[in-house]
Amino acid sequence: MSADQRPIGEVERTNEKRERVVAALSGGVDSSVAAALLVREGREVIGVTLNLAGGASRCCSLSDADDARRVADHLGIRFYVANYAERFRAEVIRPFADDYLSGRTPIPCVACNSRFKFDYLLERARVFGADRVATGHYAQVDVDPDTGRLRLRCAVDRQKDQTYFLFELGQQQLAAVEFPLGKLEKEAVRAQARELGLTTADKPESQEICFVPDGDYASAVERICPDALPGEGEIVDREGQVLGLHPGIHHFTVGQRRGLGLSAERPLYVAGLDAKRNRVVVGAAEDLHAKGARLERVSWVSGVVPDRAVRATVRVRHRHVGASASIDPRSDGQAVVSFDEPVRSVAPGQAAVFYSGDIVLGGGWIAESL
Hints:
This protein has 370 residues and is an alpha/beta fold. The protein contains seven helices and 17 strands. It has three domains: 9-196, 3-Layer(aba) Sandwich (Rossmann fold); 230-283, Roll (SH3 type barrels), CATH 2.30.30.280; 289-369, Translation factors (Elongation Factor Tu (Ef-tu), domain 3), CATH 2.40.30. A six-stranded antiparallel barrel has the order 12-15-14-13-16-17. A hairpin with a 5-residue loop joins β14 and β15 (335-344). The relative contact order is 0.12.
């Protein structure tokens, strides 16, 4: 009987020597099926749940750990919970709040993925004598036939593709990671979960940042940093004329229209946030368009910084379809992106990720729009 024909759990009762891999079990359907596929291949799988939010959210919480444990029991694999709540608060949650208070629009899922889901997970894996980790991310890894370097590629299911959040992964991480769901459509994943009898088969997905389950980012910032709130400030137009007052810049992001509390002849949008003067700058729709962006902390998946400008499709938000642009690498990990056509709502704090077709070239953090 081949490995892919064995019932789930049967391989764990054999004495054959198998490759050991640690699977991140979040308690959701995707990570459950990813682990199940590895078991079916005949791998020795160890399930690990990272308790990141200390029970404060639907993602990576203790209740999710219970779901993950049930999946591990069903698969017949060992299971552990690793408590990283304090590190998560220091390295993801607090910087999220600091960014909002500094007038930036943060995207904590990137730091969580690159640092916790891979660096810390791999660190934990080596304690178990495993050199590889697997997750339920929708992404693919292959080898560039020309250079021999590893490439990060989009998932087959483009609606579920998560490469935008993984752009900081480098060659060492890609060499140790597996994405079993990269070639599957989401519906096929759920169908497999039902076929395997997994309790997570119909579990709903979390659409919000894990530690802000209600989507109220301003309230989350106030809970995290109650002593650092900027207080009331001015809403001004692009010429500096005061139009009204706001309760704190952490309530706003670039491109936002609702919640300004202003009466105007035409729609007004948040065009910028001036943290130093605690001001929200508003403008018309055309004021939201940027010709480019200056990036910092730029990383390249290949590990090689290009010595000349690179043509690519650049996504400045997770759901952004992407815009054709030139990327000019600069010193000290910076780069300047020049769009072929102006792009709307290029927000400092967000990630700009570079694609060549379905291949992720790299990305960086938007320091300012140009």
